[in-house]
């Protein structure tokens, strides 16, 4: 499979250096953006498989903010490139779709190793998603309480026929809970299924579910103390 890779880098020398490494590793479809606006234009028109995102790019959004913007619409694996390895930077970036970090200056070996791990993880997630989609075809609509319905195939929540708008993470949580109704789901499972095993805090999960429950007040998602949640239908 020929992957399409996007390098987001506002330094021409740094871009050419990384591009040269990727070409030596036999990657041919390499795209370039120097700011967040160009990134959004490219991903809108092209299926990008993975993004090398410089954290400190020029423009209205830095690399971390750009990834957060992308995450609202797309799921694209990210490898951050940065000259900063301090804990504050890593902490700010870790809640996004991060599959790796490259600390500048990096070598061809480090790029190859990081990319290999990221692509392998990406393919495993695709397989898991495909297997789940096959299983979920047996389930189409789930009747929730007080006139709410959830359609598995279209990932649509409706109230008496009207569509309820949710964010990507809210929808992902609802989708997973609806596929596992009346089952106790741990925080760890939610981390793996919704945040792809990233190290996020339980409070982040609670905040996301709290926002979901505010939008759907009668949705019966109950908290299990020090464990997780259960959707009762």
Essential attributes:
233 residues, Rossmann fold, five-stranded parallel beta sheet, four-stranded antiparallel beta sheet, 8 helices, 12 strands
Question: What's the topology here?
Answer:
Elements: E1 4-8, H1 12-24, E2 29-33, H2 36-45, E3 50-54, H3 63-71, E4 78-82, H4 87-93, E5 98-103, H5 108-136, E6 141-143, E7 148-151, E8 156-159, E9 162-163, H6 168-179, E10 185-186, H7 187-194, H8 202-215, E11 221-224, E12 228-231
Parallel strand pairs: 1-2, 1-3, 3-4, 4-5
Antiparallel strand pairs: 6-7, 7-8, 8-9, 10-12, 11-12
What this model shows, in words?
With 233 residues, the chain is an alpha/beta fold. The protein folds into two domains: 4-133, Rossmann fold (3-Layer(aba) Sandwich), CATH 3.40.50.2300; 141-231, Winged helix-like DNA-binding domain superfamily/Winged helix DNA-binding domain (Arc Repressor Mutant, subunit A, Orthogonal Bundle). It is 44% helix and 21% strand. The protein starts with a strand and ends with a strand. The model has no long low-confidence stretch (mean pLDDT 88).
